[in-house]
Amino acid sequence: MNLPNKLTVLRMCMVPFFVAALLWQGLWQNSFIALILFAAASLTDLLDGQLARKNGQVTTFGKFLDPLADKLLVVSAMICFIDMGLAHSVAVLIVIAREFVVSGIRLVAAGEGTVIAANIWGKVKTVAQMAVIIGVLLLLGLGQNGLLPAGIDVPLISNIGMWLVAALTVISGATYVVDNIGCINATK
Question: Long-range contacts made by residues 120-128, C-beta under 8 angstroms, separation at least 24?
Fold first, then answer.
């Protein structure tokens, strides 16, 4: 269990605290607390990968767990956003479906002794998802404190961001299928 893997596990452990802060309306400054927790968890994603590559600590465990931790963090936020009227359920279902498809491909590949690491589209998708979520959380925090300019429609902005992320997620998922079709066909 090297430092990059510990950071990945930490990211997963932060998820319930993030969700509790976001949904607990009675918590003072809950949106800003959720923003801080989500941003910190997102930074561990950047940091764990850089440390693993820099120090030669890339592991099979890390290649498996890192994308899982990302999915857990992002999907938890998006499901909360549905509950809060900030994301359409279909956009979130598209994201979740892609994650199941890619995870399925990874499981098939693992059964064949191959580990499929995140490709550039997967990384771009993850960064975009995290950026949109951080932006929405920031808007919520500003609104909670009366600092949001009049006329800013947070649910509309959030939903547009979620649909853009869903579109990027489809592109990312399609690249995984195309890039790894040989792995899928090899199991027949």
Answer: 121/171, 121/172, 121/175, 121/176, 122/67, 122/172, 122/175, 122/176, 124/168, 124/172, 125/165, 125/168, 125/169, 125/171, 125/172, 126/45, 126/70, 126/74, 128/164, 128/165, 128/168
DSSP 8-state assignment for residue 145: T
Q: What is the pLDDT along the chain (188 residues), one digit of tens a residue?
A: 889 899 999 999 999 999 999 999 999 999 999 999 999 999 998 898 888 889 888 887 887 788 889 899 999 999 999 999 999 999 999 999 999 998 888 888 877 777 777 789 988 998 999 999 999 999 999 999 999 999 999 999 999 999 999 999 999 999 988 988 877 676 55
Residue with tokens 């998802």: 129
- Token pair in block for residue 130: 């995290």
**DSSP category for residue 148:** S
Q: Is 42 exposed, middle or buried (0-12, 13-18, 19+ CB in 10 A)?
A: buried
**Structure tokens given for 110:** 């693992």
